[in-house]
Each structure stands twice: as C-alpha cells, then as structure tokens.
Task: inverse folding
C-alpha cells in the first residue's frame, strides 16, 4: 500500500485542544511559506481535509488482477472499495492472470475501471509490470530484444585451468597472495599444471514461468529501459493517455534490480565504463570483488558506485523524464530487502531523487522478518 504524503501521525491521539494548537501552528508555518499572491488555507478547510481528504490522500491498495476478468468483477470491486472510503487503487497484475497482459481486452477493462472511477471519484494508478520485478514487461521486452537478457558474474576457484570459453571473462593463477591474470595465455592455447585458479565466468538470467517463459533483463544495457517504456507505458498512453495526470496520477515500479542472474552484476560494456570512470582495469581487479585482497575496499566502492550511477542514468532518469513529459508521477520502490548488501542496487535513496513521489509497498504479515 502506498503511503500518502499527508501525515496524520500522532495528531489523532491528542485531545481536541491539542489538535487545535498543532493545527494552528502548522497553519502559521504553512502561511509563512506561501508565495506572494497565494491564498492561505483556513483552519476549517484543513480540518475538513483531515476528516474527509481528497482522493489523492486516500490509502491506495494494490488491486490484484489475476483471473479471466469481467466488467462485473471490476465494477463490483471498485464499488466495494469506495464504500469503505478507499478512493485509490493500483491495478496489479499477478500470477493467475488469464486476460492477456497489455492486450486490447486488457485496455478495454482498464477503460471500464476508469469509467467507474469517474462515477465514484477514485484514482486508478498504473503498476508497470506483470507481477515483478519491473523491467521485463511480462516477457515482452526479452521477446522484442533478446540481447536484453541479464547476466551475472561468478568467481570460482578450481584446481585445473579451464579451456578457452566464450563465457569466461578472466582467469587468474593464484600463487600465495598473488593473482596473475592469465586470460590471454589461456585464449592462446597455453596449458598450465594443476594448481589454484580463480575463474570469472558469465552466468545468464534463468528462464522461468514467472518471466513469461523468458528471463529478467539487464537494466544497465543501453536501450532496455527505452524498450520497456515503449511496450508498456506507451501502450497505456495510446489507450488511456487522456486520463494521465487526472484519474491516472502515475505509475508504480516494483523492485527493478541489478541481480538478474545472481552473483555480481555483469554487463558487456561494464569494463569500458569502469576504465573511463576510474582510470584502471576492472578485469585485472575482479578478484578483489570476491576476496579481501589488495586494495579491495577501493575496488568494491568503485564497482558499486558505477553500478549506481548507471542504474540512475539507464533506469530512474528515463522513467522520471517520461513522467514529467506526460504529467505522471513516478512512484514505487526498489529491492531494499537485501540491505545493507549492495548487489540489487547501490543506494535506494539516490534512486528516489528521480521519483516525483518516492514510495514503497507496505507488506503485511511478514512473520519471518523478526520485526
């Protein structure tokens, strides 16, 4: 559930007199900050908004669509929610959905929802994925762009030097504390005795039903976010764009991340970007990403900092700019469950700087999280 910007907090716990004092104090501050020419809001109006807020300040649950949907289901659910003073929803596709995602029928049902929202004075937000994590468009991005497949990097120690392989990024011969990059020698066919070798190899994002029979994508690969926006948001704009910024306030993104294949994130263009950004070779320093050797703290900092910068440039900013252009609010959240690990994304708060409305979904009944 998205948390509203209106904070009710402890005000509801105070006595009526304390309520009034807090309210008046807030009004004084608010009035002082108003630009010249803007009329201050009187206390009666503020009181009314607390007890009967406009729809944009109501709770907004994730409204699951996971069936062969009918007009009656949609209208009935919306009326039930409105009767309980729930005036906003996020249309959330989930496993079990039988209505084809982003099809003509999908958007026809969206129009049914928007017609009912008009009658009930409700908002209907876009949830940007067929389940989650955002970015693969229910399999449509991989289908249109097979090269978008996400990659990871594994570093494993072996006793026998490997043969040349396209999936091998680098091979290091370990002698004591020294890690010698022998990748070029391996590729030229040179053989080595048994010993200790660290092999950095590519792993591909797995295919699965969750991803529509496809796989999760590399959000740092140029063109992937643009393809996602094209096959998702542009379809919404063509079908219901007249409601953008009105009954459709914005779009919610859910847990886009940088670990599509597990392990360390890998993009084919990452070594070149790293060299340009930091002035030294990422390939030569791959062992430091897995082992506490040499100047490993600097290498890891530089690696994750680069991933964060690219995540902002390749994902957050294009989404934010699309919303700015089309009168939408970019909201939602990233993969914070693994904090303080940086594998899924370096800094969620830095990403939120490129959201018109930073938010999160409030997951209930998480008994396993020791909270």
Result:
């Amino acid at each position: 559930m998205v948390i509203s910007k209106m904070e009710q907090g402890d005000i509801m716990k105070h006595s009526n007199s304390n309520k009034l004092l807090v309210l008046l104090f807030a009004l004084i501050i608010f009035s002082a900050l108003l630009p010249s020419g803007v009329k201050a809001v009187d206390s009666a109006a503020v009181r009314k908004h607390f007890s009967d807020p406009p729809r944009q300040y109501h709770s907004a649950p994730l409204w699951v669509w996971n069936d062969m949907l009918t007009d009656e289901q949609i209208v009935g659910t919306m009326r039930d929610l409105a009767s309980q003073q729930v005036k906003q929803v996020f249309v959330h596709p989930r496993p079990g959905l039988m209505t084809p995602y982003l099809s003509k029928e999908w958007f026809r049902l969206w129009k049914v929802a928007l017609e009912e929202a008009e009658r009930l004075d409700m908002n209907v937000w876009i949830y940007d994925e067929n389940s989650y994590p955002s970015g693969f468009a229910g399999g449509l991005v991989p289908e249109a762009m097979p090269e978008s497949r996400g990659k990871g990097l594994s570093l494993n120690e072996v006793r026998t030097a490997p043969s040349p392989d396209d999936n091998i990024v680098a091979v290091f011969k370990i002698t004591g504390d020294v890690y010698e990059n022998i990748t070029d020698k391996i590729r030229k066919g040179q053989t080595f005795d048994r010993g200790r070798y660290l092999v950095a190899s590519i792993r591909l994002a797995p295919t699965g039903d969750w991803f529509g029979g496809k796989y999760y994508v590399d959000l740092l690969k140029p063109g992937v976010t643009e393809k996602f926006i094209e096959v998702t948001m542009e379809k919404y704009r063509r079908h219901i764009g007249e409601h953008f910024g009105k009954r459709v306030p914005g779009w919610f993104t859910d847990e886009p991340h940088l670990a599509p294949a597990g392990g360390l994130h890998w993009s084919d263009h990452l070594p070149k970007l790293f060299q340009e950004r930091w002035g030294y070779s990422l390939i030569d320093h791959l062992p430091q990403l897995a082992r506490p050797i040499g100047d490993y703290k600097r290498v890891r900092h530089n690696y994750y900092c680069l991933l964060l910068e690219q995540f902002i440039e390749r994902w957050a900013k294009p989404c934010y700019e699309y919303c700015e252009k089309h009168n939408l609010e970019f909201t939602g959240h990233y993969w914070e469950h693994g904090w303080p690990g940086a594998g899924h994304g370096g800094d969620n708060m830095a990403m939120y700087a490129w959201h018109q409305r930073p938010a999160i979904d409030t997951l209930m009944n998480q008994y396993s999280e020791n909270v």
The chain has a mean pLDDT of 89. The chain is about 35% helix and 15% strand. The CA atoms of residues 129 and 137 lie 5 Å apart.
